[in-house]
């Protein structure tokens, strides 16, 4: 008990000293406000990650770095946000990996279909050397990658019929992100893949100009897609990261101690969001069922995986050595 008390006292002293050091680090810093934008609503995992990040950054910089969050695509769609970051009109955001891959092509390797067998497997690669190497590549296009939050494992919904195998997708008009890997994946599965921004997709589903879309359970739930989509297939066809990303113009203006806080806070906020997503999924599926959505939890995964083999043939070499390195990491 004495050892416990002594250790607790030592921990308290060290935390107090660290807090005092942090305060000293920022005593001479001019206050700065960073605008963090994302395209989803306040119930979404992106907003959960953003608010945790805001809390951590403001606390650890003694309020010298203030984060203002702009949800609901209020500053533009994801491509617009990234372009704004490059020129300094937007400071930072939580951005789905798909649009980011339009700026650094190799980032799309993560979104090859059925690459990751579990969330934990994905986290090991993203948070390890391979993921960090790809984050660092963003600096080549005037962006700064901080950490990987998540969009999560993506699942199919549609308004027309239950889907159990690729044959059931034949002719369905499915919205996909504006990313060639997604487009080709769904074309190989037999769908009429239609790339479009998320904000446009919501209207298109309401108007019936598209039949379906693919997204993680948390998005399907938070955007109440049960109102336009009658069927969900837990295909878990792709694990989609999301990225805490900044523009290099604003990153380069920040002192080193603030940069350190931002990077550490982004990683912690990302891990927080991952856990919240995992905790909420069962309840979200139950709520969607209650709302009348028919959910297929056991589709013919072998048939889906076989159908997308041409995607690997087309893109495998395009990502250099990243695909074999990821596969090696997953087999360890």
Give your account of this protein's structure.
The protein is an alpha/beta fold and 332 residues long. The protein is 48% helix and 20% strand. It is built from 14 helices and 9 strands. Strands 1, 2, 3, 4, 5, 6, 7, 8 and 9 form a 9-stranded mixed β-sheet that branches. The longest helix has 35 residues. It is globular, with a radius of gyration of 21 Å. The N terminus is likely disordered. One of its GO terms (molecular function) is carbohydrate binding. One of its GO terms (biological process) is transmembrane transport. It comes from Halomonas qinghailakensis. This is TRAP transporter substrate-binding protein. Keywords: Signal.
Return residue spans where pLDDT drops below 50 for at least 5 consecutive residues. Answer: 1-21
Main beta sheet: 9 strands, mixed
C-alpha-based Rg, rounded: 21 Å
- The N- and C-terminal alpha carbons lie at a distance of 41 Å
Order of helices and strands: HEHEHEHHHEEHEHEHEHHEHHH
Query: How many DSSP E strands?
Result: 9
Give the assembly state of these chains.
single chain
Specify the helix fraction band. Answer: 40-55%
Helix segment tally: 14
β content, as a range? Answer: 15-25%
